[in-house]
Amino acid sequence: MSNASPGWAEFWECLFSPGSVALIGASDVPGSWGFNIMQRLVQSGSKRTYPVNPSHPFIRGTTAFRSVLDIQDTVDLAVIAVPAQRVPGVMQECVNKGIKAAVVISGGFAEVDDEGKALERRVVEIARQGGLRFVGPNTMGHVNTHAGFTILGFMGKVSPGPVGFAAQSGNMGSRIMQMVMNQGVGFSKFVCTGNEATVRLEDYLEYFSQDEDTEAIALYIEGLREAKRFLRLAKMTTLRKPVVVMKSGSTRGAMQAARSHTGALAGSDAVYEAAFRQAGVIRASTEEEMADTLAALIKQPLPRGRRVAILTMGGGFGVVSAEACEREGLEIAELSESTISKLDSMLPSRWPHGNPVDLAGMDTMGEVIVINCLSALIEDEGVDSVLSLVALHRYQPLRPGASQLSDKGNTDARAESLKTLGEKARQLGKPVLSVGALPPPPGERSAAEVPWDSFSIYPSPQRAARVLHQLLWYRRYLESVRDC
Amino acid sequence: MSNASPGWAEFWECLFSPGSVALIGASDVPGSWGFNIMQRLVQSGSKRTYPVNPSHPFIRGTTAFRSVLDIQDTVDLAVIAVPAQRVPGVMQECVNKGIKAAVVISGGFAEVDDEGKALERRVVEIARQGGLRFVGPNTMGHVNTHAGFTILGFMGKVSPGPVGFAAQSGNMGSRIMQMVMNQGVGFSKFVCTGNEATVRLEDYLEYFSQDEDTEAIALYIEGLREAKRFLRLAKMTTLRKPVVVMKSGSTRGAMQAARSHTGALAGSDAVYEAAFRQAGVIRASTEEEMADTLAALIKQPLPRGRRVAILTMGGGFGVVSAEACEREGLEIAELSESTISKLDSMLPSRWPHGNPVDLAGMDTMGEVIVINCLSALIEDEGVDSVLSLVALHRYQPLRPGASQLSDKGNTDARAESLKTLGEKARQLGKPVLSVGALPPPPGERSAAEVPWDSFSIYPSPQRAARVLHQLLWYRRYLESVRDC
């Protein structure tokens, strides 16, 4: 494996946890890359940040160096944000300085034309001779939340968490990260891979596969440069950590666009699809599906089978959700007699006595009933997962006289009973997904309100059903491999 | 047509624009139907509202009547919200009072069991003999925004607008209405059809087809009771007004759920699908798609062909969007030389010179360039529609020194230039869809900020591409029919 070959361990350490950083092309011009990245480095509190700019002696009020060679300290990581034509010279200086890891932000290389390709080859040659590896060129940077390190000029705070993410696009990366964070899940590391001149998507996969901070791996792919290696790595990795991929760029116009984006050759979609399936890689077809699936993989157990129980506030929504589940290959569970009689004791006699469980008379009931119904469904041995169309975190009791539930003590009690429900579901290995609007972002949420870790909330039954399909598919994959 | 038969015109008038309303089952118990509906009637400022309740002499502080028969005034509309067993008696009194239109909110009829079916037949028989038609039973009510009339107990304000909507589910109806309103589009009328004992979905379609306040028709369907009549009506209607349908309940478990929801028989999905296509009915597969499509039908012209131009802020997002379009049967337009040279004069030399048009260097450019680029794309004769991945209403110029654009005068100028762009697109018959987060609801929006009427904004390129597919399909349908 390439990560075992010389220099890789040092490279990853310098890339993700640098003790000192030189920003070549640091700038005082707001909106420029050199400005935004400088901003991030200062914000992330890196004590040893060295701005380099040959024509401005001061950047943000501190001394700038004319060249990395003028820096007295050792430099772990060089971040290069100068025009493409200047990159070979700058790279030579980095090599001369003994730097082993760099990030080339600058664009204008293989993604543009043949001239750019030749320029990129020159830069690679210089780096290779000096034993230097670099991310990019044509990248938007990377982040290591656990080390508090970021050079993502285009994005604010990335929440720490268990997802490692490599993306062949900065803006798709930021879109997907934002969606995952909206689901209350964060990232260990993110890297925008750019043109992958010396470090490839396959290298990041191998790194994440061994990284202890990473429990699930996300990849946005336009084209693979080492498809066979990718599949070998993926096959080993998915046995221990789920890998979720969004692969785009397969249709005619998209393929052309991908070529001028990062120079990647997108290749046949059917081939990718078959290969992913064989390697246990979960494939998402949209950004939303990718975020939805990642969040569930972190929060939910994998369901044992297809049988879903649905709790709904109204008939039509139950019908639509049942259809959504069935279209995703799931089954509407047949509830046991014991469950039916438990529900009977809680619901008005005219409830439809079947699944979906319709609480049409909801507005005359209290929240406790919702939680007790869900609990009964979770306990049913014929149920593998539960879909609640009552948005658990938002639900407010409407029963007359129940308003006292909204005071502090009762809010805590409510959070407590939801937490107990979540724990039961996890113990029994049954995912519980809820449909509703997402809660406000972490900072604006009251701590007592939602045991957010236990629940996955999706805006539509179709998206929730798709997630259950993906979780089930992954479980079945793992079972089939382990049986061999 | 049934609407021409005796009594229908009077029924519709009494249903949607009643001069006087009796609410039988009016209640002071918060959360009950009788309470919520009373609330709406009072809020909607209906001067002649008569609460009826045999056991409470006062409701909301005003005199309640023991029976409709005790009301001295004529009653245009009776709204019935009493337990199912009491409905036959109440209905008889309505008939005796000479009432011609009613809404039976109460559930517990054909959707429950054979006994319920028999009860429903009795109610229908009583009504029929008295020449009374009624919505429901088992309905959540209706609204006529243009008359300021609503008995939708479960939902706040419905915005007025051009969409007429009949739904075989109250909660799906409210979900879809909310989504359409979030897109800045409102409703002429909405009705939850319930069990359709005397007034069927086909009747509402026929009514909307002739209603002058209704420019587009939305239908949420679980099962049709008069499929042939539906298709005949739809075929005539779609020549003048678009009809968008969400049809659910076709898979096994969903079919069963639909039966216990409104007693509807869902039937084979393939048969419905073929019939809809033949009648020019646009079918949406999710609530989101239904709302997206309706909003675009109101705001956008129908595209003449498949060729889409894409404006993007980053390569990856362009690739994903191109793929989304192609998967929906659209084509990535080949830009004319004249367009390329117009763009050349505005963009840095390294832009990819193709479609998607990638403004990768966006952060060094002003907003004027975005509008000018879009304008160039709209003018290209080889372009049928434009997809902007720059969210027009949200976009803030990032260029150094451009911050003065955010002051009042420049905000107006910005709105003005967006408006001009929208008008040009409409004149040339080209839809312009934008991808981004939706703007805040109407009340919270600054008037000058967005010429919201001209633009359709969707949260993902996949959803925008799907809308373009639907608009194009409808245009092709209309062309094929008119050619005959």
End-to-end gap of chain A: 24 Å
Oligomer: homodimer
Backbone shape of chain A = elongated
Largest interface: A-B, 63 and 63 residues
Taking all Cα atoms into account, the compactness measure Rg of chain A is 26 Å
How does the major sheet of chain A shape up?
7 strands, mixed
Low-confidence stretches of chain A: 395-407
Count the E strands of chain A.
Answer: 20
Beta strand % of chain A: 15-25%
The helix count of chain A comes to: 15
How would you characterize this protein structure?
The structure is a homodimer of 484-residue chains. Chain A is of the alpha/beta class and 484 residues long. Helices cover 40% and strands 16% of the residues of chain A. The first copy, chain A, has 15 helices and 20 strands. The first copy, chain A, has helices at residues 8-16, 33-43, 87-97, 114-129, 170-182, 201-210, 227-237, 252-262, 269-278, 287-299, 315-327, 337-344, 367-379, 408-427, 461-483, and strands at residues 21-24, 49-52, 58-59, 62-63, 77-80, 101-104, 133-135, 142-144, 149-150, 160-167, 187-192, 216-221, 243-247, 282-284, 307-312, 331-332, 357-358, 385-388, 432-435, 456-458. In chain A, strands 9-8-11-10-12-13-14 form a seven-stranded mixed sheet, sandwiched between helices. In chain A, strands 15, 16, 17, 18, 19 and 20 form a six-stranded parallel sheet that branches. The longest helix of chain A is centred in the C-terminal third of the chain and has 23 residues, at 461-483. Chain A is elongated, with a radius of gyration of 26 Å. In chain A, 56% of the residues are buried. The model of chain A is unreliable at 395-407 (pLDDT under 50). At the A-B interface, helix 5, helix 8, helix 11 and strand 16 of A face helix 5, helix 8, helix 11 and strand 16 of B.
